[in-house]
Amino acid sequence: MTGYCEHANSNDDSSCSTEYGGKSLDNQKNIDYSLIDYLLFIMEHPGATALVNRQDRQIALQIKKIMDEMPGGFFIYHADGNEELIYANNAVPRLFNCASLEEFRELTGNSFKGIVHPDDLEDVEKSIKEQIAQSRYDLDYVEYRIIQKGGEIRWVDDYGHFVHSNYAGDVFYVFIGDATDKKKLLFKEKAEIVKESSQKERQLKDQIKEYNKEIQNVNQKQMQRMEMIEGLSIDYESIFYADLDANTVYPYRLSRWSDERFSDDGSFWEYNGFDETYINTWVYPQDRELVRRSTNAEYIRRRLEKEKSFYVYFRVISENDLEHLQLRVVDVGNGDHVSQVVLGYRSVDEKIRGEMRQKKILEAALSQAKSAIVAKDTFLANMSHDIRTPMNAIIGFTALARRYMDDKEKLSAYLDQIENSSGELMSLLQNVLELSRLEAGKVTIEHEACSLIEILEQVERGILLLAKEKQIQVSFDYRGIEHGDVYSDRKKVGQILQIVAANAVKYTRPPGRVSLTARELVVSDNYVKAEFIIEDNGIGISEEFQSHIYEPFEREQNTTLSGVQGSGLGLTIAKNFLDMMGGSIYLESQVNEGSRFTIILSFPLQKEKNEISASGQKNQEQKEAPKRVLLVEDNELNMEIEAELLKDAGFLLDRAMNGKIAVEKVEKFPAGYYDLVLMDIQMPVMDGYEATRAIRRMEDAGKAKVPIIALSANIFEEDKRKSMESGMNLHMAKPLDLPGLLEAIRNLLDEM
């Protein structure tokens, strides 16, 4: 409407002139205009009634009045833009529990989009567009939810039609009604159908027999069968009734794969070969003979003489994929002779694929279980051998030591052997625990300030001891490291180098040689890439075994053949650490000539290295007074061993059997009475963590600051972190390494 009536409220009809769709609507009778457009104009401008053509106006007003009072909802809205409502009759606000049309417009925003539930809007508009595209003359139908005033959700039926108006443009008019009760009933019926679907299949033959008894003529028989098919339609896509004696088949229900020659006109077709086109077109080639045999009349008779029904599974080609179907054949005759049968086809794709997935899962689980059993057996076999070897040495040399108590030379040699075997056993256990933590994902990489030179020096000290025992010549060259102050996991870098270098010493016969060379490959403002080369002229590694060298428990020669004790876990652990740190390791080796391991790691550089000022240095004067240590240990054997070692080292000793007693003793004596506390972790009554926290909370600052060192068999990073978080100063491993402990005590006391 491009104009409006200036005398809308006047009774003088002749004084009104309106431009309508680009045309003037006046009293000229030769002007032709649309009654629908006129209705739309009145709906949008209810006050503008003084149009020229009184008769059309009266008709339009009468039609509007009828629409206003219709018992069902009716509304009109623009098809474009915001889909603004043009008109809604009185039933529409009632449907939305609104007291007035104005209240309804406010609730919905006066648009079709505001009528439809937000979750349904996209599907509703898509469905309407698709239906309009298919037919411009039929009503489109959709179901959707609305939200009434007050928040209640109701279902509605929507029958709409799209038209083009010269006045209003593209519009939809819609008949709408409450469908909530119908939907609830439909949901209930669907639930009952799903619940009963499994029972229907078992009752199929009995139902057919019952229908046969009740059918008295052909028309009744046809009707009853159709009712039965409708009841089973939820399960079967295609159902055929066949009379094998008459060689006829009747299609009750057809799927998208059915032969197009079948129709719904009630005709019977020849049974022999009725599914040949279907088989050749849709059935997967490898399953075609199976389907042909299963629908062969003589084959059906032979099968149904022994059983009331049978079924087969086959595949069809669907959209370049395979779908699984089931064909079920049921004898519906009354006598012993097999003639009347029903053939039902249904999709079982989801079921079959689910069973296939479950089968694969079970197969994978079985394979994994078998692998786990093999791995466990391998683990136990290796562990049994590798534990027994040092244990036998410990037991044997202990017996010899008891026999030669008076022979100090032999006794000393036997004790050395016991100590070496104990070290091997402890190393094995630590490696096994480390590997289990790696596999469980419990190992983390620390990022701390450290010195590559100090790490290399520490590795050098350890390797020199090993080399001296074997009379191996060792050389170290790390002059190529000029930027050694970096951030990394100091312990793990040291472990990697220690493992590889120790292996080089182990597998090199005297008087062989081992070298460790370190140099920088690339240096930038923030990073340094370093190369560590460990080379020996030992027994070497065969080319075949090199691909397995990083696998757990793998050794090219066992301890009997090589004469070298080891679990085969060291390189596995080193390789895992390198992978976690983004490093790499390369091997070059020839049998009887030696091996060369190249390790490459990148490290962030310390931009500013803290220097210890002279004013911060401690007075290093020797104190002649012995240090008093509180030893907290619940195991009597460990207590006895540790106490004797500490006494021999010159310490004064006090003992506590659990954390509670330790706290009481620290509280009892004055500050400075104990120079140091050696704290076990796992103890009854109160563990080491809780005891340490209790000491740190003491009101006396001198007592609260007493140095505490954890002594624990738990030596992993998370254990050390827990110790530090509880307030301990250091965390050291059991069994007690006396030289290391003494050095740690000296350093700690010097810092205090």
What is this structure, in a nutshell?
By secondary structure, the chain is α+β, with helices and mostly antiparallel strands.
What does this molecule look like?
The structure is a single chain. The protein has 752 residues and is α+β, with helices and mostly antiparallel strands. 45% of the residues lie in helices and 22% in strands. The chain has 25 helices and 25 strands. It has a 6-stranded antiparallel beta sheet with strand order 10-9-8-13-12-11, sandwiched between helices. A hairpin with a 3-residue loop joins strand 17 (513-523) and strand 18. Helix 1 crosses helix 2 (54-69) and helix 13 runs antiparallel to helix 14.
Which residues form runs of ≥5 with pLDDT under 50? 1-33, 610-624
Helix percentage? 40-55%
- Average pLDDT level: 80
Percent strand equals 15-25%
Structural class: alpha+beta
Q: Would you count the extended β strands for me? A: 25
Q: What summary fits the major beta sheet?
A: 6 strands, antiparallel
| Apparent shape | elongated
Strand order of the largest sheet: 10-9-8-13-12-11
Give the termini separation.
Answer: 95 Å
* Number of helices, counting only DSSP H or I runs of 4 residues or more: 25
Q: How big is the Rg?
A: 46 Å
What order do the helices and strands come in, and which of them pair?
Elements lengths: L17 E3 L2 E3 L9 H10 L9 H16 L3 E6 L6 E4 L2 H5 L5 H8 L3 H4 L2 H17 L5 E8 L5 E13 L3 E10 L1 H23 L1 H11 L3 H15 L5 E6 L4 E6 L15 E2 L5 H7 L5 H8 L1 H10 L2 E10 L2 E11 L8 E8 L1 H55 L4 H32 L8 E4 H19 L2 E8 L4 E4 L1 H17 L6 E11 L3 E10 L6 H4 L12 H4 L7 H11 L3 E7 L3 E11 L23 E5 L3 H13 L3 E5 L2 H10 L7 E5 L7 H9 L4 H4 L3 E5 L4 H10 L3 E4 L4 H14 L1
Parallel strand pairs: 15-17, 21-22, 21-23, 23-24, 24-25
Antiparallel strand pairs: 1-2, 3-4, 3-7, 5-6, 6-7, 8-9, 8-13, 9-10, 11-12, 12-13, 14-16, 17-18, 18-20, 19-20
